[in-house]
Design a protein that fits this description.
The structure holds 2 protein chains of 2 kinds. Chain A is 86% helix and 0% strand. Chain A is built from 3 helices and no strands. The mean pLDDT of chain A is 84. In chain A, helix 1 runs antiparallel to helix 2 and helix 2 runs antiparallel to helix 3. Chain B is globular, with a radius of gyration of 22 Å. Chain B folds into 2 domains: 82 residues; 180 residues, no CATH class. The C terminus of chain B is likely disordered. The chains are: A mainly alpha, B mainly alpha. Chain A: Keywords: Cell membrane, Membrane, Transmembrane, Transmembrane helix, Transport. Chain A: It is a multi-pass membrane protein. Chain A: It is found in: Cell membrane. Chain A: Belongs to the CPA3 antiporters (TC 2.A.63) subunit F family.
């Protein structure tokens, strides 16, 4: 079981690193912010897998908090971009 | 376990690589987004190091609230919005001498850290044995909470005071009512808020309660509840007004005040300050943590709002 989980973990990290390209390169602010949101989902998945792999249920709480709070930055981005009405 | 080793190496390399990439970026917005992702990678690193408490604090504060705080700051620097054409450039002019001094100081700090690490005694048992011995007297069953709220409660009190000092300074520096119109957050946001906000409030209370026996506690719970308040401020459902100031001041101070009062109140009759009677330790710790949670949530939201809500005399522009 655990070798499979380790492979899943590595694949998820690879997908996260692939998405990192858009965070660094952009070109637009929205590209960066949306890829960060996508990476947040990958990080939640990895935390859940780690909770199982390391037999640490506390990591499920970490995944819960990350899933809840990752969207706050997106809402802040949208709300702050719309001030001024440009 | 070679796959897991490969994963660890890849994760460690990407943490260092992303840190370097973040520092080398020119665009402030890109730096903020990269820093948010950096926080997520760091939390995964802590999870791999079997430190779920630190991972929880990192995702609550690092990946969640500081991203929103930094975006708010950037919007403020750019004159009210995130669009780059809307204001002055963010990058301050720096000359070679400033950069040289900065590099020197950063290098010295790195050398000091390296010396401290290399000079630390190797392979000695830490304080875990002492903590394990004292656990029955702590009132809680989670060692991290026992250390934070009991064995080294004085340090934790000072951490709460740091946040209080921050909000006092912000209110001194920046005043005025927000005059910008409410952002057009549409039906997607309303659907999100309807589902996420009640869950976040419950999660905050859960983190506070579970802190007695598992990773959780006041700072994490405060960060989650603070995020709820930040969403309320962003959608303009919460509009800070001058009339809110007495309540806000009381809430900012409540955590520090209750913490200090409990610490002093248990002293006397042969007890030191902060030496909770074991029979009441859990009640006192949860009381302190609950008040500190509310204070932290209110303080973080006030820091996000970034100004004291007071009517400013005409002629003074506030943004």
């Amino acid at each position: 079981m655990s070798p499979v989980l380790a492979v899943i973990l590595t694949v998820l990290l690879a997908s996260l690193l692939g998405g990192l390209w858009r965070v660094i390169r952009g070109p637009s602010d929205s590209d960066r912010m949306l890829s960060a949101q996508l990476l947040g989902t990958a990080a939640v998945a990895m935390t859940v897998v780690l909770a199982r792999l390391q037999d640490m249920p506390a990591l499920l709480d970490v995944a819960l908090v990350l899933a809840l709070l990752a969207a706050v930055t997106l809402v802040a981005y949208v709300a702050l971009s719309e001030r001024r009405g440009r | 376990m070679t796959v897991l080793l490969a994963f660890d190496l890849l994760l460690a390399a990407s943490i260092v690589g992303l840190a370097a990439a973040t520092l080398l970026m020119r665009d402030a917005f890109a730096m903020i987004v990269a820093f948010i992702v950096f926080g997520m990678l760091l939390a995964l690193g802590w999870a791999r190091l079997v430190a779920p408490d630190v991972a929880l604090a990192e995702v609550a504060i690092g990946a969640g609230l500081s991203g929103a705080l930094l975006l708010r700051t950037l919007a403020h620097l750019r004159g009210g919005g995130l669009s780059a054409q809307g204001g002055a450039s963010v990058s301050a002019p720096t000359n070679g001498a400033t950069q040289g001094i900065n590099a020197l100081l950063a290098g010295l700090a790195t050398c000091a850290l390296g010396l401290a690490y290399l000079g630390a005694p190797q392979n000695v048992p830490g304080l875990e044995a002492h903590v394990t011995d004292a656990m029955p007297e702590s009132g809680v069953t989670h060692p991290v909470t026992a250390v934070l709220l009991n064995f080294r409660a004085y340090d934790t009190l000072m951490e709460v005071v740091v946040l209080l000092a921050a909000v006092i300074v912000v209110w001194q520096v920046e005043r005025g009512l927000a005059e910008t119109p409410a952002p057009a957050l549409g039906t997607v946001y309303q659907g999100f808020a309807r589902v996420a906000l009640p869950v976040a409030v419950i999660a905050g209370g859960y983190l506070l309660w579970i802190g007695a026996e598992a990773p959780g506690g006041a700072f994490q719970a405060g960060a989650v509840l603070g995020a709820v308040a930040v969403l309320g401020l962003l959608s303009r459902h919460v509009r800070p007004a001058p009339a809110h100031r007495p309540l806000a001041r009381g809430t900012f101070v409540a955590g520090t005040a209750i913490f200090a009062l409990v610490a002093l109140g248990v002293s006397g009759a042969g007890r030191e300050t902060f030496e909770y009677p074991p029979a009441h330790a859990k009640t006192l710790i949860l009381l302190i943590e609950a008040m500190v949670t509310v204070s932290i949530a209110a303080t973080l939201a006030a820091l996000f709002h970034g100004r004291e809500p007071v009517t400013v005399a005409t002629g003074k522009e506030t943004t």
